[in-house]
Structure formats: C-alpha cells, structure tokens
Amino acid sequence: MIKNELKNTLIFMFRALSFNFRYNESMTTQKISTFLIFIVFIIFISLGLPDSVMGSAWPAIRQTYSFPIDMIGILGAIQLGFSFCSTILYPKLAKIWTMDKFIIFSTLLTILGLATLGLGSTFFTMLLSCILLGFGQGSVDITVNDFAAKHFSNSLMNFLHAFYGVGVMASSFIVAFSLQPHRSWQLGVAIISFFQILILILAILTRSKFKEKTVLTSDNKLKDADSKLKLSHFILPLFYFFYALELLIGRFYSSFAVEHLHFSMAAGAAITSFYWTGLTIGRFMTGFTARWFSTQTIILFHLSLLILGIILGFIPQLFIQYLSGTLLGLGLAPLYPMGMKQTYNIYSDSIAKRVISLNIAFATIGMFIIPIPLGWIFEQFGFASYPFIIGGFGIILSGLCWQIYTKVIKK
After folding, report:
1. Cα–Cα distance between 126 and 116 in angstroms, integer?
2. What is the Cα–Cα distance from 273 to 76, expressed in whole angstroms?
3. Is residue 410 pLDDT above 70, yes or no?
4. Which of 134, 140, 160, 226 could crosslink 83 through cysteines, CB 3.0-4.6 Å?
5. What secondary structure letter does DSSP report for 240?
6. Which of 161, 202, 209, 153 minimizes the C-alpha distance to 18?
7. Are 109 and 135 in contact (CB under 8 A)?
8. Which chain regions cross the lipid bilayer (predicted)?
9. 380: which residues sit within 8 A by CB, 6+ positions away?
10. Residue 122 has pLDDT above 90, yes or no
11. Structure confidence at residue 142 (pLDDT)
12. Average pLDDT over residues 325-351
C-alpha cells in the first residue's frame, strides 16, 4: 500500500512538472518532451557526483598522498579556478559547438579527472585531476543552465538544481560505503566513475536531441547606462560571498569528525552524506512549500534550522552529529535560489541583472578564497575551531538575510 502511494505521488509530481513546463512552452523556441526533461535532470546529477569526493574522502585521500590538512583548500581553489575558466571560454566555443558536444566532452573530462584521482598517488596527478574535474564540471554547469534557462519554467529550474544535490548526496553515500573496513576510497571513486560512464553513454545515445547551438544572449542592450550601483546594492553579493559556508561544511565536516572528534573515516563521510541529503531534501521541499508560504516565512524557518544545526555541532556524539549535518543542509537549502529571486523583488530590472552578475561573481570568489586560510588555520591549530567558524558564518548569513528580507531597499 505504501509503495503504491509513493508511486502515485512520484507520478503526480512529474506530471505536474511537465504540465508546468508545457504551460510555458509558448515562450520557447521549440517544444521539449518530458523524456528530454528527464535526460537533462540525469545529466545535471552528473555535475554533483564528483563534488563530495574531496570532502567526504579527504581524510583518507590525504593519507594516501601524504598531504597536510590545509592542502584541500589549495586544491579546491585550483579546481574552482579552472571551473571558472571553462565558463569564460564557453561563449567563444558555443559559436562553433552544439550542446551535445559540450555535454559529451565535459562528462568525458570528469571521468578522466576521477580516474586520475583514483589511480594516482603524487601531487602532480592530484593537480591534473583538479584541472580536469574543474573544466569538466564547469562546462556541464553552464551548458545545462543555459539550455534550461531557454526552455524550462521557473519550477523546473528549481527542481533541476535540486537534482545536483541528488548527485552530491549519492556520491557522499558511495564514499561512506567505500570507507568501511577492508575497503578503500578508491573503490568509491571507481563506483562514481562507473555511473559517470553510464551518463556519458546516455548522452551519446540522445545527442541528436541536443543539436542546437548554445550561444548565450547578450545582456548589454538590456542594461540601463544611467543606473549606477550604490553601496546598498552590494548587500546581496556580500551574502553570496559568505554563502561559501555551504562549501566549507561539505569540505571540512568529515575532517572535523575524524581529526577532532576521532570518529572513523566511514562515520565522517556518512555525516557529510547526511548534510548533502538535508540540502537536497530541503530544496525539493522549498519547491513545493513556496506555493503556500511567504518567502520571509520560509527563510526564517530554515535559518532557525541552520542555527540549531550549528549548536548541535558542538556536541561530540555520533547521532547528534548526524542530526547536526542534516539540519545544516536543510537550513542552507533555500538560501541560494531564493536570494537570486529576491534580487528582482527589490531592484529594478536593469539594476537586478547587474546585481545577479555580482552575486555569481562574489559566490565564486568566496568559494575560491575562504577555504585557503581556513585550511591553514585547521592545519596549524586543529579542528577544535571548526564549529565556532561555522557558527560565525551562520550568524553573518542570518544578519544579511535580515537586511535582505525585512527591509525595503530602494530601487
């Protein structure tokens, strides 16, 4: 009976999504089938699959490579930097490549990056892995987002980003499984690579459906030359700079659990898995609850979960840490997508477009810069400071959200 109810619920949800998409088909240049929506969701899962490997398996990886603790911040910055490079190259390559070539090439790069990570044991192989993963994931990210922006409704866009969380959540559980006794983190990388290969085969088999050119539309003609940014316009970009908290938790939580709380590596990876699970579930939930509750109510509720998760993080008990990780994920879940939407609610169109560009830029800078000094701090002083640092970021985000969602910023 329960299985039938679950099946009917999933069918209803997917039909609702498909209906919501067809309702917006008049604004697209071509009709997109439900099957194609499903393919795009699967491809976006591939974006998240490699993302939790560095965080969940880092205690084991650094032992294999004989790296110091702070090396994860440097390697993560390198990977993020090359991901940013791929987004810069995208508009030029999009003039000559169709979308199917981007998807196939990008997925192949991530597979090679994972293989290099699993088979290597030197700094140079690790560096090559970060470069390949950075380019591959960055290219998949911007290609699919560009396609979705052209053809998907707002509802489908939200669910699309939730499927990224599905990929991260799945890979974190795979890593936790591989870190059980008599196994190795390389097994987890091999399993994730296998799923990436399956997605690559799927992309090749369906490549005819992605033959359109993926040239980005220029926003220059939409900008208002007379609209000058003021200091108050930088409150949202500043929020996205500190939203690097999402990455910090995913990258350092496992090391905190292993190095400071002295849990097993498998337990540390599992805690990170619970975090990514909370983030994913939270984004799916927000996709539905946004229909019945105001944005302010949703943000306040999730910030409360975030603060509670931070408080529980100070308690050195395994079950409490699982709960803390889940609450941290649930708390952060709606902040990123709803912040983007809020930009158009408080600013005029010409200002909003420029602020959104700053949001993405500040988010990238935050994720690039902040992990490096924190990695050095943890290397020098240990992970005892981890919950205090996470708490500090949580307080800053809460204060910025108060400014963003409770005060009217003049356009």
Report:
1. 7
2. 19
3. no
4. 134
5. H
6. 153
7. yes
8. 32-49, 69-90, 102-120, 126-144, 156-179, 185-205, 231-249, 261-281, 293-312, 318-336, 356-378, 384-405
9. none
10. no
11. 72
12. 82
Residues pairing with 213 in the sheet:
98
Q: How confident is the model at residue 161 (pLDDT cuts 50, 70, 90)?
A: confident
Tell me which residue has tokens 């529980």. Answer: 312
**Does 205 have pLDDT greater than 80?**
yes
Question: What is the distance between the alpha carbons of residues 57 and 269, in angstroms, rounded to a whole number?
Answer: 6
Q: What is the mean pLDDT of residues 146-175?
A: 75
Contact partners, residue 334, CB within 8 Å, separation at least 6: 282, 283, 286, 298, 299, 302
Res 5 pLDDT > 50: no
**Side chain identity at residue 99, one-letter code:** M
Q: Report whether CATH 1.10.15.40 matches the domain 228-411.
A: no
CA–CA gap between residue 135 and residue 376 (Å, rounded): 26
Residue in 391, 240, 243, 249 with CA at minimum distance from that of residue 326 = 249
Cα separation values, 320 from 169, 174, 273, 303, 309, Å: 19, 22, 14, 19, 9
The CATH superfamily holding the domain 43-213 is MFS general substrate transporter like domains (1.20.1250.20)
3-state secondary structure of 395: helix
Q: In terms of Cα–Cα distance, which of 142, 118, 125 is closest to 44?
A: 142
% helix / strand / coil in the chain, to the nearest 5?
80, 0, 20
pLDDT of residue 17: 45
pLDDT at 349: 66
The DSSP output letter for 315 is S
Residue 91 has pLDDT above 60, yes or no: yes
* Predicted pLDDT at 226: 45
Residue 9 has pLDDT above 70, yes or no: no
Phi, psi angles (nearest 5°) of residue 98: -90, 170
Q: Which pLDDT score is estimated for 212?
A: 61
Residues 6+ apart with CB under 8 A from 158: 283, 286, 287, 337
Report the C-alpha gap between 146 and 149 in whole angstroms.
5
Which 8-state DSSP code applies to residue 30? S
Q: Is there a contact between 138 and 83 (Cβ–Cβ < 8 Å)?
A: yes
The Cα angle at residue 377 between residues 366 and 372, in degrees rounded to 5: 30
Domain ranges of the chain: 43-213, 228-411
pLDDT at 32 (0 to 100): 62
> What DSSP letter does each residue of 112-140 carry, written as one string?
HHHHHHHH--SHHHHHHHHHHHHHHHHHH
Q: For a pLDDT cut of 90, what percent of the chain falls above it?
A: 24
